[in-house]
Amino acid sequence: MPDIKTEYGWDPSMETCLYDKIRQDMKHAMIKKDTAVRDTMRLIMGDFPSLTVSITLESGKKTTRVKKPEEIMDDDILNIIRKFVKSEKTVLEIKKETTSDYLELLNNYLPKMATSGEIEQWVRDNVDLSLFNSPMQAMGSVMKHFGKLADGNQVKEVLKNMGGTS
Fold first, then answer.
1. CA-based nearest residue to 80, from 54, 55, 109
2. For 65, phi and psi rounded to 5 degrees?
3. 141 exposed, middle or buried (CB, 10 Å; 0-12, 13-18, 19+)?
4. Strands (E), 48-128
5. In the predicted model, what is the mean pLDDT of residues 62-83?
6. Burial of 151 (0-12, 13-18, 19+ CB in 10 A)
7. Which DSSP category does 110 fall into?
8. Cα 111 from Cα 31, distance rounded (Å)
9. pTM of the model
10. Per-residue model confidence as pLDDT tens digits over 26-47
11. Contact status, residue 111 vs residue 151, Cβ threshold 8 Å
């Protein structure tokens, strides 16, 4: 298997949008005969028709149409990838495995998740836990700040641990 960590992947600092990067990586994988990578890119691109825009017809009826390539935002594609990551994690759980090449490849296209240390530091810098009856009540503001870059269970764990120290 090729070194997918360096050869394939995307992050928001790149000058190319995720849509273009996935297409480039698929071409690259086809040339290098990396069938696993090629198939994963095809899987992601195959889900693009699920990205739709609401429209109102002349008759007043509301419907949807598939987004044009220039309308597809990075967040749309990241949500598709997150969906595949979630389903792969479920499959791995059933198989009692922790990771797979497929999961690693998908993760290369997602923004780096916040670490427990980063979450704890942000809470210390921005949240006065003494205002809450329990640190868990700060969960909403922490999740609002980190959004999809933090796992809810991870935030819960960090807040639980901070409860005894603050």
1. 109
2. -135, 155
3. middle
4. 52-56, 62-66
5. 95
6. middle
7. S
8. 26
9. 0.77
10. 999 999 999 999 999 999 999 9
11. no
